[in-house]
Amino acid sequence: MLKKVLAGIICMLMAAGTLASCGDKGTTTSGTKTEATSQSDTTAAATEAAEVENVDIANFTPPEKGDTIITMKIKDYGTVKFRLFPEYADKGVENFVELAKKGYYDGLKFHRVIKDFMIQGGDPLGTGTGGESVWGGKFDGGTDPHLIHVAGALAYANSGGTDTDGSQFYVVTGTVPTDDDFEYYSQNGLALSDNAKEQYKKVGGAPWLDGSYTVFGQVIDGLDVIFKVQNVAVEQSASRPYQDVIMESVTVDTYNGEDIHWYLDEYEKFDADEITNSTGKENLSISNFTAPKEGETIVSMKLKGYDGEVKIKLFPEYADKGVENFITLAKQGYYDGLTFHRVIKDFMIQGGDPKGDGTGGESIYDKGFDGGTDPHLIHAAGAVAYANSGSTASNGSQFYIVTGEVYSDSEIEEIESYGYSLTENEEEVYKTYGGVPWLDGGYTVFGQVFDGLDIVFDVQKVETGENDKPKEDVVIESMTVSEYKDGEVRWNISDYK
């Protein structure tokens, strides 16, 4: 289960930025939906991939003396050199070369890093939402079957098609696929030539991206630098490195016959664990389970057909705008009669949309608001947070309550092996109460269920249909704001009989 969810995270995260589609390895996301979904799960019947022309793969064709190459110096990591392929990706090469000449990339960072997949940069905003081509706006770089997504491939990120190429790019790391993987790709409609398969078996990569993104370069030296970067610790939700990985300079140079090192085994081995663990992340106390005090404002939610109420402690000291928005909407009766439109077992229940389909809702402010995040509040079971469409700046009325799973030591280690860094206090919470660790840092947590958690866990068991929508409506009968007086506080689902 854990591996399945983690595989799905890869493409959910990319969808939040500009590398949008990950084919059979991917998922779709709206609000907070996060579940691995293969094409075989979502189509009525998988079809065999059509045969493709067995063209020569050009990625590992050496440059000739005098050819234009790119030299990228990554601060604290080293230098990477790229061969370019104007014969197969003329506009893509021209765009990158001209941007580099202007110094466009100098000082920018790799804003999204996913181990065993890729490292992505080139956005002046550093969020995955910005950047433009040398011509202004976007351009269509196209694709060519001679260039594939092997380890070390350089390609443009896009938001749904190669006609949305801009300045953002990624360098592939990937994994080495097995024959079973290739069979799976074929059954799900991904056609790979024999030559492509041979290269993927030799060096690894991300085959499912082929045909959807403009590959225009290949690492000829410094591949170990790329693989070191992919091991940095990242924020769980956005895959953003805790410590900035900065392109000190990206320059246009000429190839003069230097040695070429295409493959990772040509480099000196390094300790990936040392890189992953060098975050400097502070081991802060976790505040989710701080009991409410007498007179403190709480919110109580009654669900139609369920006995009791779900009572929520709020944290204005860590999420002031989020709390203000929720309280005001509740006082207005905004949530009364709305449904939980998305329910995913062992993950969360989501509601607060007047349209009931995950596309609506608004805050008390003019538009969406930025509720931010605070490391004192994490996605433990019972946490209440705002759904968003890519960043906390798009918070509205939609919220979710976490159910998640309790993690063992080995499962925590597996999560961290993907580059997600958990402090000792966070680990203890997820091993004791459960939750969804990889959402931390990407969504505004503003409350915690302190009574009625059993109701939330009952809701997550309802039968669902398309888009994880319950087949029978789960209705919020009322949402009321009051002052806490006294009463039992039950944080853990094991506290309920």
Distance between the termini: 26 Å
CATH C-level category of the largest domain? Mainly Beta
Coarse structural class: alpha+beta
User: Strand order of the main beta sheet, please?
Assistant: 3-4-6-5-7-2-1-8
Multimerization status: single chain
Radius of gyration: 24 Å
Q: Which strand-content bin applies to the residues?
A: 15-25%
Kindly report the CATH topology of the largest domain: Cyclophilin
In CATH, the homologous superfamily of the largest domain goes by the name Cyclophilin-like
Report the uncertain regions: 1-47
CATH architecture of the largest domain: Beta Barrel
The strand count comes to 16
Mean pLDDT across residues: 88
* Number of domain units: 2
Overall outline: elongated
| Number of contiguous helices | 11
Helix amount: 10-25%
List the helices and strands and how they pair.
Layout lengths: L1 H14 L23 H4 L25 E7 L3 E7 L5 H12 L8 E5 L3 E4 L31 E4 L12 E4 L6 H9 L6 H10 L11 E7 L1 H7 L17 E8 L17 H5 L20 E7 L6 E5 L5 H12 L8 E5 L3 E4 L31 E4 L12 E4 L6 H9 L6 H9 L12 E7 L1 H7 L16 E8 L14
Antiparallel strand pairs: 1-2, 1-8, 2-7, 3-4, 4-6, 5-6, 5-7, 9-10, 9-16, 10-15, 11-12, 12-14, 13-14, 13-15
